[in-house]
Amino acid sequence: MTENKTKIVLDSDVVIHFMKGDCFTLLFNIFPEYQYLILDVVYEELAKNAQTRTFIDNIVVFMPDKLKKIQFQPTGKMMYEYAQLLRTLGRGESACMIYCYDNKDVLGSSNLKDIKEYCASHDITYLTTLDFLYYAYIRKKMTKKECDEFIQKVLSKGSKLPLVDISTYSCSVAI
Fold it and tell me: Per the confidence metrics, is the pTM higher than 0.85?
């Protein structure tokens, strides 16, 4: 039953990177043992791009065991925490961090400048795009060449990612 499983809550940057890298559906197979979630706040950000919206909608409809779109509805202390984060951060990052903190789930975000300190101080596990790529590589879902091509595609389409050799990348998260 997926309701009791730890979930991976995706922020928009990871979704965008995997879309630009032409590996969006692969994202959900890197950790098949987890349920992936996209909060309505993040969906609204992503849905501004029609192609991205269509991809997400199709995964939600045709692969509901892989990706669920849910409403972010903080209450009590979490509403206060969310309001505090919104003073300096965007809605998507803030919502994802609050959701993960409240539910003890894993955050999928590469926006380290915005998330790293909060996640560290609240014991939130997070995975960056490169962490997902690393696990795709070590779990043999992608070859080194495919990982290199992914990084190049994402960079060529205007997103920022560190240029790394995935075979020597050091992922600090064990999940």
Answer: yes
Rounded to the nearest angstrom, the gap between the alpha carbon of residue 101 and the centroid of all alpha carbons in its chain is: 15
Within 13 Å, how many C-alpha atoms sit on residue 159's CB side?
22
SS3 state of residue 141: coil
130-to-3, 27, 62, 118, 168 alpha-carbon distances in Å = 27, 12, 26, 20, 12
The three-class DSSP label of residue 85 is: helix
How does pLDDT run across 9-42, given as a tens digit for each residue?
Answer: 999 999 999 999 999 999 999 999 999 999 999 9
Q: What is the CA radius of gyration of the chain?
A: 15
From residue 39, give the alpha-carbon distance in Å to each of 13, 47, 113.
13, 12, 21
- Whether the CB-CB separation of 107 and 125 falls below 8 Å is answered with yes
Distance CA 74, CA 72 (A): 6
In 69-111, which ranges are continuous DSSP H helix?
Answer: 76-86, 91-103
| Residue range 103-149, pLDDT digits in tens | 999 999 999 899 999 999 999 999 999 999 999 999 999 999 999 99
Partners of 37 in the beta sheet? Answer: 9, 68
